Amino acid sequence: MSVPDHVSSGTARPAAMRTPRTARVAYFVSHPIQYQAPLLKRIALENDIDLHVYFFSDLSVRGYGDRGFGGISVKWDIPLLDGYSHDFLPSFRHNDTLDFAVPLSYGIFSRLRHESFDAVWVHGYHTVNCLHAILAARLLRIPVILRAESQLNDRVRTKTTLLAKRLFFPVLKHLVRCVMPIGKANARYWREYLGSKISMYPMPYAVDNDYFSRNAADAAPQREALRRELGLRSGRPIFLFASKLQTRKCCADLVDAFLKLSQVPGVDPLAYLLIIGDGEERATIERRIHESGLSSIRMLGFKNQSELPRFFDLCDVFVLPSIHEPWGLIVNEVMNAARPVVLSDDVGCHTDLVEDGVNGFIFPRQNIDALSAVLRRFLDDPLLAQRMGQQSLKIVDRYSFDECVRGLRQALAVCIPGFAA
Prior knowledge:
- The structure is a single chain.
- This protein is of the alpha/beta class and 421 residues long.
- 37% of the residues lie in helices and 16% in strands.
- The chain is elongated, with a radius of gyration of 22 Å.
- The strands form four sheets. It has a six-stranded parallel sheet with strand order 5-2-1-8-9-10, with helices on both faces. The chain has a six-stranded parallel sheet with strand order 13-12-11-14-15-16, with helices on both faces. The protein has a two-stranded antiparallel sheet with strand order 3-4.
- It folds into two domains: 15-206 and 400-415, Glycogen Phosphorylase B (Rossmann fold, 3-Layer(aba) Sandwich); 209-396, Glycogen Phosphorylase B (Rossmann fold), CATH 3.40.50.
- Helix 9 packs across helix 14 (368-380).
């Protein structure tokens, strides 16, 4: 569905209400994203930033079949459009997928020309729409701020792709004023492709810490009731996986690592493994669990955003063994429940959020033996998870929306004369 060109889905702040040094910012992004919605609402509270968001697609607010979740219908159960000014751009091409040239939006240049924006912030450079927004801003001499989640090992790249990037980025470097890295791995990516002189202002990937910590705390009194609902014996540690069941998420590796915890083949370990999610690998994982003959691994299916905090509270340790993972925002979420995290060294946030041996462990990607050894450490020391979880809470507190706003303000200050960071 495409929203008509003249229809606005949000109400912009009247010019009379803005201070003389207000920064008018146009933000272009693919679609309403559940992780970004509360951040945009937080930015809108700044009295000297007049933010208007332009979406290329509305698929996440009308519901869609998510291929990453195996095609199941997904409609997020948190508000995605509240609290900030926004529009859906009209499109020539649109459907239930997002791709390089789908949707193909129009009206970007005219909006930038007529709305007198001081800066343009674009999320990504990997679609026709993103490039359209960057080029339109450049033609209108509006400074461009770029944010993306790419890192050097977030996917397998062919020699042709690497050559194309080497040719493309020298051009992109002259189209943007600065970038806002989401973390250390992303900053290395920008330095590699845009050079050491590109201006960078960190805007870390973060979640609504207050929401997740509060909801996990609210779930605590019902923890034992949830255990009983799931048929889990009291006192046995719980490992949790929650993500799309895609090959690159390596949930099957986690299952195999967990099975190695059995002292005798066919006998359940003294722990549980809960798997939340759906996707292409579900049948393979279910078959592996069935073949093991164990009853301590539970497949719980897809859970919506508001359901997750009670499972974060229920678990003792969260595990994400992915490869080619740009960040992994669910790690932020579960750390707000004061839980330790076990990540592969291919999960982008591991250099930012995890101090190995302090609030969790890092293991070599796709190394099942190493992952199993890490899991066993929590069984050998029943108090380890609690000690590490408290450290997780301290660390994730530094990755907040306030830090995101600080980074945005610094970027705007170099783009807009007279704007105070």
